[in-house]
Write the structure tokens for this entry.
Amino acid sequence: MDNLPYVNINYELDENLIEKWWNEFTNILSHTGYIRPNFSKLDDKTITELYGHELFIKSDSDALILKDKVNLYAEKILENLNLEGIPFHVTFMVTNTGILDWHKDEASSTRPQCSAAIMYSLNTDKRAPTEWIYNDVYYKLDGYKHALINCSCMHRVDNSKCSPRRTFRIALYGPTFEEIKSKIIQSGYTI
Ligand SMILES: [Fe+2]
């Protein structure tokens, strides 16, 4: 296996279905303050909206029902990608500004440390170049449609050409990035 902090995925997702859910979350939650203004340690202008985050939907029964559907779909994806049983958390993420500067995705009061995330860029051909320092080596990926990325080492994302960037994101917890990458490669759905 290579030493890259990412692997491109060629498993096809149902973009229309994801888009439909995205719109449903927006409609359901537009009255309840679903907007999360920031991630724990990042600048407050970087990521402004997370749809389907449990913290914001916990008091809304319609959103919870929708989230159950989304989670079932995510479980199916993980099963096909040889990642069955790994704890996960799905969000629909909107990133609004240019550079998301160097950071690790750290644990916070609402979520544990995530090792890796499956990222899927919605409805755009524009890509967000991403850089990592991984095992003391610099890596750059010019962008991706669908990929597993390492979130536990330092990384930086340039969203300036595709802002606002909308991503269907499955964060993965427990096993290390390397363990998850090894499993997903065995699924055959990687490039
Ligand atoms: Fe990150």
The chain has four helices and ten strands.
